[in-house]
Design a protein that fits this description.
The chain is mainly β and 128 residues long. It has one domain: Immunoglobulin-like (Sandwich), CATH 2.60.40. Helix content is 0%, strand content 44%. It has no helices and nine strands. Strands 2, 4, 5, 6, 8 and 9 form a six-stranded mixed sheet that branches. Strands 1-3-7 form a three-stranded antiparallel sheet, with no helix packed on it. β8 and β9 form a beta hairpin. The protein is globular and about 45 Å long. It starts with 15 loop residues before the first strand and ends with a strand.
Amino acid sequence: MPEPVAEPAPAPTGPRAIFVQPEDGATVTSPVRLEFGTENFEISAVPAGEVTEPRPALGHHHVAIDAECLPAGALIPRAAPWIHFGDGSNVIDMQLPAGPHTLTLQIGDDLHQTIEGLCTTISVNVPE
């Protein structure tokens, strides 16, 4: 009698923040090309002028080097280690010193507040 075959785990269906490149655990050379995106979530540039209310279900990328995800609803600082991509872009070539690094991608709304579940981290290593 054949053994039962395990069903594959269902693919996540909710919104996710993802690194397109580099891959988690990669050894990279500086400058490092970071490319990021989302699944099941729309990225949009922050509107010009003063924004007083965030648009629902829209956000933009924020990347930090050697930092962890911020809690949902937190204001993403406009200072190191965070880089804001309020123009809606999703690529940057970044200089990283030699050694291991944690790269964090966090999606924020038009007011730069974090959105529940839209943060991911990967690790990379830059050789000497």
